[in-house]
Amino acid sequence: MTEPEFAPADAAARPLWLVPQGEDGPVWPEGVDSGFAAATGFAGRPGQLCLLPGEGGVSWALFGVGRPATPADRPARERFALARAAEALPEGAWRIAGAPAGYDMAHGALGWLFAQYRFGRYKTAEPPRARLVCPEGVDRDAVLAMAAGEYLARDLINTPASDLGPAELEEAARDLAARHGASVDVITGDALVEGFPMIAAVGRAAGSGRAPRLIDLRFPGEGPAVTLVGKGVCFDTGGLDIKPSASMLIMKKDMGGAANVLGLAETLARLGRAGGLRVLIPAVENAVGPDSFRPGDVLASRKGLSVEVNNTDAEGRLVLADALAYAAEAQPALLISMATLTGAARVALGPDLPPFFCDHDAAAEALFCAGRDHADPIWRMPFWEPYEAMIEPAIADLDNAPSGGFAGAITAALFLRRFTEGAGTYVHFDIYGWQPSAAPGRPKGGVGQGMRAILHALPALTGVA
Questions:
Q1: 51 and 200 belong to one structural domain
Q2: How far apart, in whole angstroms, are the C-alpha atoms of residue 151 and residue 266?
């Protein structure tokens, strides 16, 4: 996996001042040639950069951070503003020489590392030009752990299905387990057909070497009973209800839920907080072939509920349902699913703001606040009980794709909730997992969503201080 890095601290690192706007203009750092900086038009506005010349080239730099504010004060249009400096500064090591009182230096450093991510598997990627020395007072290990989890999620999502099918997703889980002393159990073949019939049905048409499987990753040690379940559809053609070609172009990202739960597990393990954690990934490819499951089929499920298939392109909830039922049998205190599940969620909230569903008000508030305060925004949507009738067809217990098109994200969440009986608090995230266009700290391509919100809310969610 790609590893995030800080620059080593040394005397050659050039100083970077983070300059706020005051009532009468920039609040100039002591010793800075403010006359030169002002003559360039530098005013401390968010994202402004001023390079100060010295012997042999640029010796200092100023970066505008605007009027001091925290994410809780008002939403930021750019959640990782300091990443602009990482992308614009000249090559070399830089250190933060000064910042406004209250500036969240750890957040700034994390955004800088996010901006340094490169996906270089298929072509030589230009290395990051400007590298940051870990700022004084910042928990270096914590920032690197969060960046490593994000990098892992991005690497997995960005890898095309030709090189990341169910077997390779299993290998990624095994690599993670080897790094952190966890164990992996993988269920395939007849055992999958008998115990997880919907996972087997969705993945049975995939070609040789791409057989469906359920990946079960467990971390040793003591800790709260937390289970993460991630949708691992490594490519989604839509099945016999085949997608248009334009809609298929980025379907390598349909395992984004799996990528996010693995990324979160990576972060928790590096922080020493993965004791007792369990991760389940139903890994499949939804392919078209002679053995494809069909519209109108009625599938058995692990829980015993029958499911009528009214759209083979609503396969994610089928594989998740079997995995959730399995997870719930162990009665975890907290059960979280993450999935690139519905277009309806994107229509409602766009690509940048994933919805989450949770019946527990205090847990939902903890998640929302953690997402807001740590630049990982999420938005609560309801398990709306009156819509339960929409997922109950005439000839089976459940319908995987109610007709009409209304409330698609909610009906999908309600469907999944039917399989979580026995678990404690259940939270479902309907993520996009993809950055459609580049933004500071978030290059175009695979992206983590909800991981840091969960990470920082976990103590409240599990009742552990």
A1: no
A2: 10
